Amino acid sequence: MSSAWLPDLLVAGVFIGYVMVVLLSFGGLLTWVERKQSAVMADRIGANRAYIRIPFTNVKLVWMGLFHGMADGLKMLLKEDFKPRAHDRLGYALAPYFAFAPVLLVFAVVPFGGTVVPGQLIPALAGVFGDRAYPMQIATLDAGLLVVFAFSGLTVIGAMIAGWASDNKFSLLGGVRAGSQMISYELVMALTVMGLLLVYGTVDLDAIVRHQSGTMLGVLPAWGVFHQPVAAFLFLTAAIAENKRIPFDLPEAESELIAGYFTEFSAMKMGLFMFAEFIQIAVVAALFATLFLGGYNLPFMTDAGFAFPGGATVALSQGVRVPLQVLTFLGKVALLCVIQVQIRWTLPRFRYDQMLGLSWKMLLPLSLANLVVTAVVLWLTGGGA
Prior knowledge:
Helix content: 55-70%
Order of helices and strands: HEEHHEHHEHHHHEEHHHHEEEHH
Number of helices: 15
């Protein structure tokens, strides 16, 4: 009886390890995607200089510039950790971790697959796990969406502390901009998601995914993007702004503030700020896929298999369903990451007043109107969860 908790601990450890590998891999690969995708858009070759030489040969492995990410990481680790003379030591030391850690924590409540029964998936483990079933999610919290907003709101603290602790006027301006930007667009994100909450009646992310396994109008998959198309557009816009990416990168704005709130950071401290931004691209993609694109399921797919319009069904075994759900989720995240990079290299940077005006004068009224229309339609039709 004393070891009854061991199977749960093993599964939790596997899930945590998997999520860390996925997020760190996306963070590293997106540095390459950013370079190569922008090069394709500008009709350039892009990063292709870093390579690994096979020992005792003249063979150089270039692999389309994939090793540039490794070179960046080594450069950050080996650079001198310069500190400004008048910096605040505690704030300066903690700021990169306040910016980096919450990005990882957000993913703890994001489901990346359906329910897995290890004893059925791998019969050799039946003696250890029995018939125990586990949702493929690190923390199965009923208030999952609230946790997402709680942790995502913490990332701006790192930027604001960094700007203040650096004793640099440009950094301070960058930190202030980050704070005002977060207040503006976090409100828009919350209001857009409330329309989904009216439709699905829950803040549990796994339950939201399961609600999207059915159909609407008899033909379409019941994905959030079909229930709330305006909310989907507003959410993605606000999420990109939360990540401080072009066209919303006013807290960094190299032409105005040098590098904004992390101007005075070097070596791996600067690396953490930049790495957190790339990981957050994947987190934004995962949240959008979970809320609006059916999460880890393909259209008309459930944990039992496929249930197509018209009554046709296709049953799936654990060995097929679990890998299919995991790969489906990764595919959606990868596609949405590419779309975000495309937006970053397509649109010009807004002016600061334009960035705030877009939120308060356009996105906020639209999100309120979407919420009111959703509530009225559900009241008239008797719909919703």
